[in-house]
Amino acid sequence: MLLCSKPSHHNEMFHFPKKLICIFSTLFFILFLYILFNGDDIIEDQDSEYLYRVPYPIMRNSNNESWIKSENIAIVIVLAEGVKREYYKIAINSVECYAKAHGYQFILTHDNVWGCDYLKDKFFRRHCVISKILPKYEAVLHLDADIGVVNQKRKLQEYMNPQFDLIFHDRHFSPEIGMASYIVRNTQYGLDLITEFSNYEKKLPEGSFHGTDNGAIHMFLAEKLFPHNLIELELCRRAWRNSQNVADQFAYTSCIRSLFGANTDFGKVRILRKQGTGYVRDDWLTSGIWSLDRDFMLHGLKTDHLKKVPYGPLRVSPMSQTSWYSPFEGDFDMERCVLGNTTWNHNPRLIGTREDVECGLRMHEMKIAVKKVKYMSRLYSLLSNCYFWRLFQSHFWFIFYY
Ligand SMILES: *[C@@H]1O[C@H](CO)[C@@H](O)[C@H](O)[C@H]1NC(C)=O
Ligand SMILES: *[C@@H]1O[C@H](CO)[C@@H](O)[C@H](O)[C@H]1NC(C)=O
C-alpha cells in the first residue's frame, strides 16, 4: 500500500493511469487476502479444537513381528548419479545404523549401475532400480535419501501385513500419495507393479505440469485398481494433461483420490492414511518435535538445510520446509552400530508427547482437508480449459494454491 500514499513526482499526463493501477492493485490485493484467508474460519471453528485432540490410530501388528525374517528385508536408498552420501549424511547414517541394529540388509546405491539408464527421469529410474533389487529379498523398503530413522526401537515388520504386497502412504502436506517411500514384497504382483510403474515414464503427459512419479502414481494406480471406471479415469487424465502448476496438479490428484474414496485397502495394495498412521512423516510439520510413542522415521533431513535448535521453548507447529534440527546428539559412530544396539543419543529437547505431536499434525491435516476442497473446485475449469480463465490462473495460480 506504500505505492498509494507515495507523492507523485511525475507530470500530470501519467496521473490518471497511475491512479487506476493503484485502485486495481488495491482491489486485487484485497481479493488476494480474501482468498488467502478464506478458509481460516473453517479451521478456527470451535468444533475443530475437539477434532485436533482425537488420537491417530497407529497401524501396527506387533503380535507377529517375525513373519518375515529381518535378514530377508532390504532397506534400499537409490541416489541419482553423482550424488554423494555426504549430502544426506545424518539421515543415511541413522538408516544404516538402524538396519545394522535389527539385522536388515542395507543397500545404498546409485541409479546408473542397474541397467535403468533407458529411463530419462531420475524419479522413475529409482523405481526401476528397486525392481532389480527386489527379487533377491522377501521385501524391500524404498527410502528417499533424506529420510532418517528417529525411533530405532520400531521394527519394519510392525507396519507390514501378509495381506498386502505394496504399502504406500499419504503425504501430510498435500492430497498426494508420497513416493519418497513404500514397502514392496517380492511377489509376482509386487514386482510387476513396480516394474510397470517405472516404465510409466513414457505415459507422462507432454507439456503439462505432471509432477513426475508423484503425479503418475495416482493415474497408474487408478488404472490398475479401477479399470472399469473409464469415464472418471478419462476426466482425471484430461485434468492431468491440462495441468500447468502445482495447484492444478493437486486438483488432478484430488480427482483421482475421489475415486479411491475413504478406503485404505485395495486388494493387495494398502495406502496408509495421512502419515499419522504411517511410518514416515515430514519433519518440518512439527518443527522437528517427535514422539517416542508414535513416530518412526522423519522426512526432509538434507545436510545443507540443517539448522541449530533455537534457544527457548519450542512449539509443535509447522516451520519452514527447508529447515530441520538434528534429533540426535553427536554423530553416529558407525563402528558401534551393531546387532542389538538400540541405544541412541537423542536430543531430549526435540522429544514431545504423543498428544502434542498429534495435535500439531491434526491441525495441519485440517488445513489440507480444506485445501483439498479448494483444489476440487478447480477441476471444472481445468477440464473445460477455458482460454482466458486459464491465462489468468497461469499467472495467479498461487492464489489457488495457498
Ligand atoms: C504369524 O506369521 C506366521 C508366519 O508367516 C503365520 O504362519 C501365522 O499365521 C501368523 N500369525 C498371525 C496371528 O497372524
Ligand atoms: C550404539 O550406537 C550408537 C550410535 O552409533 C552409539 O552412539 C552408542 O554408543 C552405541 N551404544 C553402545 C552400547 O555401543
From TrEMBL:
The chain crosses the membrane at residues 20-37. The keyword Transmembrane applies. Keywords: Membrane, Transmembrane, Transmembrane helix. It comes from the Eukaryota. Pfam families: DUF273. This is Nucleotide-diphospho-sugar transferase domain-containing protein.
